[in-house]
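Quick one:
INPUT:
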């Protein structure tokens, strides 16, 4: 979208997808989210205060 003609190309050729994530405790999606959040928090802590 950031390139010239990107919005038009997306309008002409793009498509969507309907996704659902099971966020119940212990589900694979929730476990992946927990790992992502923990990793993000570690990286943010290493950067120090903003």
């Amino acid at each position: 979208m950031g390139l010239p003609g990107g919005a038009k190309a997306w309008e002409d050729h793009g498509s969507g997808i309907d996704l659902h994530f099971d966020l119940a405790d212990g589900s694979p999606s929730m476990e992946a989210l927990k790992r992502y959040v923990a990793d993000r928090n570690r990286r943010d802590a290493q950067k120090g205060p903003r």
